[in-house]
Structures are given as C-alpha cells and as structure tokens.
Design a protein that fits this description.
It is built from 15 helices and 18 strands. It has 440 residues and is of the alpha/beta class. Helix 9 runs parallel beside helix 11.
C-alpha cells in the first residue's frame, strides 16, 4: 500500500484545516505520562509511555478513557495496509471515557461526565454535519492524498493514520477530542460501559449498512463476514423484519456462534467454494439484499494474492463479485467493509445486466444513528451489544491482543480493553484475563 501512496506524492497539495489535527499540533501536559498503543511498522505495535494530551483548541475535551477495543478495520493498520501511517502513531477509534478537562468554549459537558466518542470527527457546521452525516464532514481531514484518490475527503478519524487526519487514537489512557460538544454522546447513569462503548463504531456501522442498503420486512439477506460488524448486521436485519439471514464465513467458531447466538443460517466458503451457486440453491432466484461486512486484506484466490503482493491492486473485488452474482435481479448489495483503493477484475457486466443496486455505504455517520440506537434499542433491551464481548483485558496487553485478534484465537470477537479508570465488569460480562492465559 505504501507503494501506491508513493505514486500519488506528486499530486499532494496543501489544504487548510480548521482544527489542530495531527501530531505536529499535539500538546502534552508537563506532568506524567500515559500508556498507549502505537504503530511502528507492519505487524509491529507496542504499548508505550506517551505524553498525556492537553487542551489545544477551545472546543476540545480531554477524556480519561474507561474502555477501548480493537476493530476489524484496525488490522488494516496493523498490517501496514493503510496509507499515511507514521511510526509512533497512537491507534484506536472505538472508545469512551469520562471528561477530564474542557476547553473554554465547551459549555454542555462537565468534568466527570460519562461519554462515548464518535470514531469520526465532525465540525458540526458544514452541510453534511448539519444533516448529522458526520462521516462526510468537509472540514476535519486535510489529507490531499485522499482528496486526489476520491475527489473529496471523509471526515477525520481517530487513530487511523494521516490519510484520515492524523488524530491520536483512543487505545490509550487519555485522548483529546476536538469539537467535543458535537463528537461526544453523554451516557445516562445506570448503563454499564459494555453496553454503550460500541456506539462509537460497531453499532452505528452495522445499523447503517442494513438501513442504507434498504433491508425491509420479508427480505432474504446474505451477510459476508461474521466478525462483530457482520454479527450485528445480521441481528439488525432480523429486527428490521428480514425473513431469512444467511451468513458467509470460513471460521468454524464464528459460523457456530452465528447459528447459536443469532439464529441465522450459514455457509462455510471452504466447504462451498462457489458461494453464489450455493446461495442460489438455498434461495432460488437469489438474495434480496447482500451485505459486505468482511475485509479487503484476505484474498481468496491465487490470482488476487499475487496481484496484492505485487501491488497491482490494493483491494480485492471477490466478495463484491460474489454478492452481485448471488443477488436476485434488481436486488441490492451494500458495502460497509473498509475498502481503501483499487481492485482488478470487478464484474461490471453482471452489475449492469442484473440491475443490481451496488451501494457504497461509506463510513457510517455515527451522529445520525447513535441516539436512536441508545434510546430505542439499548435502553429498552431490544439490542444488547454484550453478546459479542468475548474477553476483557488490560491495556498493557494490547500489543498481544492485536496478534490474537488477527489470528482469531480463542474465539475472540470484541474485547473490552480496560484502563486504570475503568469500572468493574458489568454483570454477565467477561471478567479480566490476560492474553497469555487464553492463547497458550
């Protein structure tokens, strides 16, 4: 991926930004240090001692992090597949905490208040933020490389390289949140952290692909990838009235969990290598809706493994091609998986001839959904996110956790990572263990 980035260096320009975005503007407090997970190269992340961030801009808040986690998309960073990574970058975009310091412009958040942070950073003032489409914010990411590749830029993201703004992330004991009143969600007392932390990404992201792709009552839905996003998308699809949900994956533990915990049908693509053929056997005529909740960094065929190795493509179209072929005529296919660049061998003909609506869901606009999910689903008990929490570990173990998460060891799904500021585990949630205990 770095080779692809180098090809675009000649196109880099200078774009103004309205807020302090990267490490050049990082301000550390003079007192003390914090533990943080930082990137130093492909497959090389380390827990380091870093400076504790302080207020930089008047709309900032600094949080004491009470919980963070690893997202499947973090593995793209771990493997060095995302452009713009720099050694020492602090990772992590799913986190929550309590307010520790507030900037002079912040009036609606108080020290000690519990909040969840959006994984993206919106300005609150552009045309997209005014519609709560926070992931499309025009003003918080000054990456000219992304602007060249996409024609526009996404919002800035926490802990996701300088391709998305260079904001230090939340896999740390403290984090600075810019434009905090827009980007933080206050959490009512009495709801444990484990039930709300995933409002930062996984829950709005999985909800977004279901809503944006148009799942409706009676639909038959295929979900490619049964990691946390795929599992949640399957649950949301059922809540939206889907008559059948079929999950596609290769990991026996994931397939079994999806059947037992969510009650969906599954297809193991190591048993059925022609996934569309198998789906047409199960659903004559094809799926109404197909959702890509997987990953671009694991090609199936030798052709794409070679092309990726040689940097002839950055992303792989195999899942998208399967979805198009597996859909019924006039069906819809949504992409929430985190693709970043270019692919070869896309089945454009099938897309056109079948009239399939291919929906690039985009990064989920967290602001659009998080109050709805909290008030209409989590608080009434209609959706309990704790079903996907498999482990709880201390921040000291985060480097080892990346290795275990990448290898999918010990049935790892979502892991609650605690800091010195965390509350005890909620009833029914995993208790603290060390990674070495369950990876031996």
């Amino acid at each position: 991926m770095q080779a692809a980035a180098n090809k675009f260096q000649e196109h880099l320009g200078s774009y103004p930004t309205t807020i302090t975005t990267d490490r050049e503007g990082y301000k550390a407090r003079p007192e003390g240090t914090m533990k943080a997970l930082a990137w130093f190269g492909a497959d090389d992340v380390r827990v380091i001692e870093a400076g504790i961030p302080d207020i930089v801009d008047p709309d900032d808040v600094v949080l004491k992090v009470t919980g963070s986690t690893i997202c499947g998309s973090d593995l793209h960073l771990y493997h060095g597949e995302i452009m713009g990574l720099q050694k020492g970058d602090i990772l992590g975009h799913e986190f929550m905490g309590v307010v520790d310091r507030v900037g002079p412009n912040v009036k609606n958040l108080k020290i000690g208040q519990r909040v969840v942070s959006s994984f993206q950073i919106g300005c609150g003032k552009c045309r997209f933020c005014k519609e709560n489409l926070s992931s499309f914010c025009d003003n918080t990411n000054h990456s000219s490389l992304q602007n060249y590749m996409y024609g526009t830029r996404d919002a800035g993201f926490f802990g996701y390289s300088h391709f998305t703004g260079g904001f230090p992330g939340g896999q740390a004991e403290y984090v600075r949140v810019p434009i905090a009143e827009y980007n933080l969600l206050p959490i009512p007392d009495g709801i444990p952290d484990e039930k709300v932390i995933y409002l930062s990404d996984v829950l709005p992201t999985s909800y977004h692909t279901v809503v944006d792709t148009g799942v409706k009552e009676g639909d038959t839905v295929g979900v490619w990838g049964l990691g946390p996003i795929g599992l949640c998308a399957a649950k949301w699809a059922k809540l939206k009235g889907a008559s059948r949900v079929i999950g596609i994956d290769k990991e026996p533990e994931r397939l079994a969990f999806a059947r037992e915990a969510i009650g969906i049908e599954t297809v193991d693509f190591t048993e059925f290598s022609d996934v569309p053929k198998r789906l047409h056997e199960l659903v004559p005529g094809g799926l109404d809706i197909a959702l890509d909740c997987g990953t671009f960094h694991e090609p199936k065929t030798m052709l794409h493994k070679v092309q990726k190795t040689l940097m002839l493509e950055t992303d792989v179209p195999e899942t998208v091609n399967e979805m198009i072929v597996a859909c019924r005529k006039g069906g819809s296919a949504g992409i929430i998986a985190a693709y970043a660049g270019f692919c070869n061998g896309f089945n454009l003909g099938a897309l056109m001839e079948k009239g399939v609506r291919l929906v690039g869901n985009g990064q989920a606009p967290v602001k659009k959904y998080w109050e709805e999910i909290l008030n209409d689903y989590i608080i009434p008990g209609k959706f309990d996110p704790t079903f996907m929490i498999s482990h709880r570990v201390p921040i000291d173990d985060m480097a080892k956790l990346y290795v275990a998460f990448d290898k999918r060891e010990a049935g790892v799904k979502k892991v609650f990572v605690e800091t010195q500021f965390s509350s005890p585990p909620a009833t029914g949630c995993p208790t603290l263990t060390r990674v070495d205990e369950w990876t031996k």
